[in-house]
């Protein structure tokens, strides 16, 4: 029965037991022989319920968690340093992969920072802004669906997972129609967006809204008054307003304390001040409140999407990139007959008609545009909280420094405060209510 | 492993290979090793639209002891590599590894200090699936190709022979950078 | 030398998109060559190009909008601290650029300034969004910068604090006693830049493995990629390729 992974080892911290499926009695029997009453348990980076590669080190006294520490960095990708070696536009493809559940928000915040540095914020055409808002709100719905689906799955509500992903497929279909990809789009670029809307998109958007309005009540019916759901979520992961502000928590966690802080309302950007929507709050400061907020925010996002679709109706044929040709990404790509991404009119234009267009295309694609030196900080309301980007430019074609303040990184600091004193099972609920995305935490 | 490894090569062994291959591929249980973006496409492949349950694979076993297939979905950072190796070691034979996405197959777009440039530096890989992230249909395609591979995998003596052959071929193969003129 | 630098700075901005009326510039670094990778045969002639990198310099009063109110309240709150210290005012300089205000704080007084910004009712910057580091290898004596972004939810404003430390003595006082949220941020900045935050409860690496040597996001740390082998060619990693700087 000698298993290299199931024996006990002595370490400087005491005896280490590895649990590999044997009875808990045998483990505890071994432990209770010593003086230790507290067991240190590692909910390792590979775990079905930690929302990604998050390592939680719990010190348990029976079933109660007396100490909790997070180990992060298992997904650290060096995205910020990688961006220093790519042009400003190529940086979008890197930052989009940080928070992979809401990629368009990463792109949006980075592009907002770059446009602040370029000082072209007022020159972005309206259609680009409306498209950006549309894509971001669609992404907000997809992200909240994932939060509810995976949160539900982790506490055992598997149906919520299957229906959540079913709805998310519709959002991904819309993304595919508009941006060409289901995830990690690199669509929002400095100066506007990459492409115009294809025909039939707005019909698809409106159909989507109609279907979602019928499907969202299913989640409410399954979860809101469900006694098991409420039993597990009500009162779990309590963090009051002072705690939130001290720990820097924003987004649903802060709004669950009753404080209506939403950057779309308080520091609006890209036309959010003109859209009609409500900021959703709850007053219980616990995991249940955060769940109800996410559910309701999906309804609000549907309202914004409808308004975007109405505005886009009147913007047929409007430009989607800034007018300055030295910044605007040149080609409006489309799939040609040979299956390659090219646009016959664009090639005809740069090769036959305009020398400047050829030069602009060449310089923009190889060198990229230069951004005047300085630094900027842009912040947006992502589904998890305040997502912000600090960009520093040295006047060159590539970022000197791009740092992202990811909401999951900051919100995870609240883990200890929320879960200590509760039971082990509540740890899973707390993680689900914070809804961290480890790609953003580790970058 | 078991008695099937000790059979003499011949008709009996090839029949057993066919049967064992069929049973092994028919319900591969994946181990949850979703790391980053590809994890979501993997989850979506298990979700209603691109159902993995039709291949018997919707049960993602959290415990590596009960899993057959490790789908490494996402970028493996330097900090995560020992964990990856440990999970792989904890899996019981027979086991297969499918590296999903370009980050797992080769480091992907992240050619830097933090990412292992291909999980084949850490674990032996049976199927590489490029894509960033690969669509669920691509994942299913790679799983079906892996099923094919499992179905036709040899046991016992035949396997030893096959390994010999492959080693020889690899030793005499030319390096990639010498293959000029083959840019198609 | 100064004349040349300012001329260079002025000339160097010819190829930029339309610029606004410029604030005074401050030279951070001088760079040679247009492309990186000095080893490949560069016959373009751009190799002898010399560019001065200059970031926006200090602004003078009035700053405009509510910036003046914040600066006045800060001045008033610092009051006697400002006059009693021998090495100069706690606020080294103030830069107003791109609609944002940055206070450069001397590192010794960082905690006092942060405490004041958080507690004074006219300032009330109760939310610290984050701490990030920037490494300016060209600014000798002030290479490592730690940047603090503060948000006042009461007054709906944002400011930035920037603190500089030399490479030889990379210590900056920690603001965790004032803003507990800075805990992980300071750990991350230490991990990536080597800035040691004095007074931090547990300053350890957070993203990299605990025994990792070096601080990855410093400019003198290589990107660390490997060359990629294709059929017939090998492409070097991004930081060793010949490309526009």
Short descriptors:
heterotrimer; B: 184 residues; alpha/beta; 40% helix; C: 245 residues; alpha+beta; five-stranded mixed sheet; 4 helices; disordered N terminus
Overview in brief:
Chain B is of the alpha/beta class and 184 residues long.
Describe it.
The complex is a heterotrimer of chains A (443), B (184) and C (245). Chain A is an alpha+beta fold. Helix content of chain A is 47%, strand content 12%. Chain A has helices at 24-32, 79-83, 90-95, 103-118, 126-154, 158-179, 201-224, 227-233, 241-247, 252-255, 263-266, 287-313, 344-353, 355-366, 407-411, 414-419, 424-434, 438-442, and strands spanning 8-11, 14-17, 39-43, 55-61, 64-71, 188-189, 192-193, 374-382, 385-393, 401-405. In chain A, a hairpin with a 7-residue loop joins strand 9 and strand 10 (401-405). In chain A, helix 5 runs antiparallel to helix 6 and helix 5 packs antiparallel against helix 17. Chain A starts with 7 loop residues before the first strand and ends with a helix. In chain A, 54% of the residues are buried. In chain B, helix 1 packs antiparallel against helix 5 and helix 2 crosses helix 5. Chain C is globular. Classes of the chains: A alpha+beta (443), B alpha/beta (184), C alpha+beta (245). At the A-B interface, helix 2, helix 6 and helix 18 of A face helix 2 and helix 3 of B.
